[in-house]
Design a protein that fits this description.
With about 450 residues, the protein is an alpha+beta fold. It is built from 16 helices and 13 strands. The chain folds into 2 domains: about 180 residues, 2-Layer Sandwich (Phosphorylase Kinase, domain 1), CATH 3.30.200; about 230 residues, Orthogonal Bundle (Transferase(Phosphotransferase), domain 1). About 35% of the residues lie in helices and about 15% in strands.
């Protein structure tokens, strides 16, 4: 059983604590699309799938342990409009419902339901692991709550994501509390964040076929991300921290033999997001957390800001994608006879453009004019990696306007960047089960 020690002097996780966690042996796992999910209707629990509905007469294992009205956690979930849940739509991953309470003495029970696969990351207050739950690989974010981060604040992220059902937004499978900790189960588990994905876009690192497939997928990310942000804004929600590190990339089966696999993106980390009841309410002032490099000028200056602040940040992400595509294009032309490709060579190294700021401010909001000039020149340049992306450079230049009122809406960006694929839908992505060898399957099924 994996245990994480905590410092006796405080209630937060420390990096030293994580060193005490033994490495998990990686299972032999692959994935395939399935109709299996967590939907239950007071049903018999399947050991290998989440889809367990078998009629109203069936009873659920552990039904006596399901959330009751008088529990503090039930009250908290109700206040956040997360409970009660329609039993026909409930994702009963635990046998106790989509949201559950476990005692500290039930840690072995939780470990049996959620088999730890790997550690994905950590902060002072949270650790993220990949866990296998009845053939579905999930990310478990365990937050150690305290006076500085009480449960009612920590669960706000869950509330935001529940409002945002979209194929390019991570989805919450469920939550549970154990003592002072809150655990959130998220889907999917990604292979990369976008920053890592872009930095590895090299044929020398990947080989030509993999490199070419990633370029093909990357070109679609403009449309996928803009469609997701459009959906977020249509629900009157501001993400407030859009950046490559908060965008996940996952390899998926492509289907046809000509494209056996591809990559899909998901917006994640709604920890500082805010939801509103009216569009006017979304215009806010005062201090807020932000990541300076990717934030709009009105956010950095603590001026009034609304949904257009997300558009600015998304425009910065688009520039990063453009830079990666430009580097990919340049890598095809090497050697002493290499010809300069003008502004494409410049955008390939966009960090060099940012570093020329006279005040040493490498944030995008401090370098709007040179970036817009560069995008205009790239759009006009005769030789480009892809002529059919010219409209992307034009709208990206508008997305990073200094004046928030001049930026296009998320709907306009999504319309301009639409790629005609059917992956962008305002519904959650179907869950994908793991294909496992006989040994692993036997262990999961309890045989």
């Amino acid at each position: 059983m994996v245990r994480v020690r905590r410092n006796s002097s405080d209630s937060s996780w420390s990096l030293d604590d994580l060193q005490s966690i033994p490495s998990q042996s990686q299972k032999s796992l692959s994935y395939h699309n399935t109709d299996d999910d967590f939907v239950t209707a007071r049903s018999v629990i399947s050991r290998t799938t989440y889809h367990t509905a078998s009629g109203a007469e069936a009873t659920s294992r552990g039904s006596s342990d399901r959330l009751e009205e008088e529990l503090d956690y039930s009250t908290l979930l109700r206040c956040k409009s997360l409970w009660p849940i329609d039993p026909l739509a409930e994702k009963d991953w635990s046998g106790r419902g989509q949201h559950a309470v476990f005692l500290n003495s039930e840690r072995k029970t939780v470990d049996a339901i959620l088999e730890v696969q790997d550690i994905l990351g950590s902060t002072r207050t949270a650790v993220v692991q990949s866990v296998l739950c009845r053939r579905i690989l999930l990310a478990r974010k365990t937050i150690q709550c305290n006076q500085q981060l009480p449960k009612d604040k920590a669960i706000d992220e869950v509330s935001h994501i529940f409002r945002l059902q979209h194929s390019h937004i991570v989805q919450v499978i469920g939550t549970y509390v154990m003592g002072t900790s809150l655990s959130i189960l998220l889907y999917p588990v990604a292979d990369y964040n976008l920053d890592h994905f872009l930095n590895r876009l090299s044929p020398d690192l990947l080989g030509y076929n993999e490199w070419n497939q990633r370029k093909y997928s990357l070109r679609r990310f403009f449309g996928c991300l803009s469609h997701a942000v459009c959906h977020i804004h249509s629900r009157l929600t501001k993400h407030m921290d859009i950046k490559p590190q908060n965008i996940l990339v996952r390899r998926v089966d492509g289907g046809p033999a000509v494209n056996p696999y591809s990559y899909r993106v998901y917006i994640t980390d709604f920890g500082i997001a805010r939801s509103y009841t009216t569009l006017d309410d979304s215009e806010t002032e005062g201090y807020t957390l932000f990541t300076r490099k990717w934030s709009a000028p009105e956010v950095v200056d603590k001026r009034k800001r609304g949904l257009p602040a997300d558009i600015f940040s998304l425009g910065c992400v688009f520039i990063e994608i453009a830079a990666a595509l430009a580097r990919a294009w340049s890598s095809l032309d090497t050697g002493p006879s290499r010809q300069s490709h003008g502004f494409w060579d410049t955008i390939a190294h966009v960090d060099d453009v940012l570093s020329r700021n006279e005040y040493n401010d490498t944030s995008y909001q401090a370098n709007i004019v040179p970036l817009q000039n560069l995008l205009e020149e790239v759009g006009n340049e005769g030789r480009r990696p892809s002529d059919d992306l010219q409209h992307i450079w034009k709208i990206t230049s508008r997305m990073i306007e200094e004046d928030a009122a001049r930026r296009p809406s998320a709907q306009n960006v999504a319309t301009s960047c639409a790629h005609g694929r059917d992956c962008c839908r305002s519904v959650p992505e179907p869950l994908t089960a793991c294909r496992m060898n006989a040994t692993t399957l036997s262990a999961v099924s309890g045989a």
